[in-house]
């Protein structure tokens, strides 16, 4: 009895805690957009399915082996958690777990059946993946034929009006091309202020980009699925499965400039003769050195560039002279170089790819991370337009901030720009603390900035306790952790001299100086409590289904035990009668 109970509890615990391997996760929102291009092998599973848990290590191994294959077309692997997205699995007529199906360009090809051995799985994929896409095939030595005529996609936003979207129309609209979407609530004052400007934006973008809106009071689930936490929230969607929240100024001029930049061609060709002029016109430029922009690697660069929304611009070239000039190693089949400070003499960072026809999943992920980590200029004025991109950048750079009055701005901007150039020379041309070469992915990014103390005075005082004066205050911010440094390693206030700046930056990057907090005691307490509450909420949310299952199983076990030892007592068909009232 005791052994049975313990064994049951152990079994339940193992059953509820085992989780499947996490690969690309598909949801009702992204299933169509992600699978519409390429070959996809998808597992429909449930975390409560014993067969799924037993198969998880093999699925992970299969994913690793498939990602390293040179066979074309490449097979991408993904999963759908049917315990979370039951409606999606039901709509795809999934009858059991695990179910594995192959899709090509969004069209169902065949379901895998039978024994789930590695040999059979590989044989299935090799036989069913189909012929390589034309752009994946190696180039023929013959001269290329004349390019076929390309039919331009139908123009968007033909009427120049704001399009109201719902759960039923959202994905189809996004799939047609770029769209700028406003998530709003009818009672929101800021939303009401933005409404007439949004209509003007739709007119300005007529025939170019869809301008749309979603009423979050009427379509709450849709807004929640896109992580809308406040109103209005403005998100720009590419036809490719990417979206970016707009956090800049909400003036018509700024909105038009943003959409124009975001909807510009993702890749632009540049010749060696044009490169210097292009770099001098832009604070940051990416140069992709590719043999072809139409192959698998070209698609990878294009998809990665789509996430940047035009900041910075990405140019391409097949010039062998440029590869030689910038020292691209022979082992690199393709490369992306970053140029900053309007200087084309040498790149500040380089990404070298090894894939010949199609980038591996690891290279795709690494390229996107690299592009975001190197998109910031070495020096800039912090304004509402670039504040979020700089201070909340994914790679968490150290941001040097000088608070200046208007009469100091020209002088300080020159000093900071010169300091950035000197810092770049000090860091092997990278601008990153600790980096040893342009292709070294390590090191802490650094951005030199200045802020208008009159406009940002309250914020600068509240966050860092500084205000403009004759002695220009300088701090180094780690904004995402709400920490900052205002002294060099010797305890002296940071000044605009390169000696003071560089020693303070290196000490902050090395962790050899103690930072200060931008939060008050009350804010720290509130954040701590909020973090704990969020952790509890996440814990409860993640384990809710497992907990319910656990309770049900325990309930069944208790019921069986009670039935076995309490209710299941044999009844005597001939009960003994009392001796009272006997005649004998």
From TrEMBL:
Keywords: Membrane, Signal, Transmembrane, Transmembrane helix. PROSITE patterns: THIOREDOXIN_1, THIOREDOXIN_2. Residues 130-151 are annotated as: Disordered. Residues 1-18 form the signal peptide. One of its GO terms (cellular component) is endoplasmic reticulum. Belongs to the protein disulfide isomerase family. The chain crosses the membrane at residues 548-567. GO terms for molecular function: protein disulfide isomerase activity. This is Thioredoxin-domain-containing protein. Residues 15-130, 141-264 form the Thioredoxin domain. SUPFAM superfamilies: Thioredoxin-like. Residues 130-140 have a biased composition (Basic and acidic residues). Pfam families: Thioredoxin. GO terms for biological process: protein folding. InterPro entries: PDI (IPR051063), Thioredoxin-like_sf (IPR036249), Thioredoxin_CS (IPR017937), Thioredoxin_domain (IPR013766). It comes from the Eukaryota. Residues 141-151 have a biased composition (Pro residues).
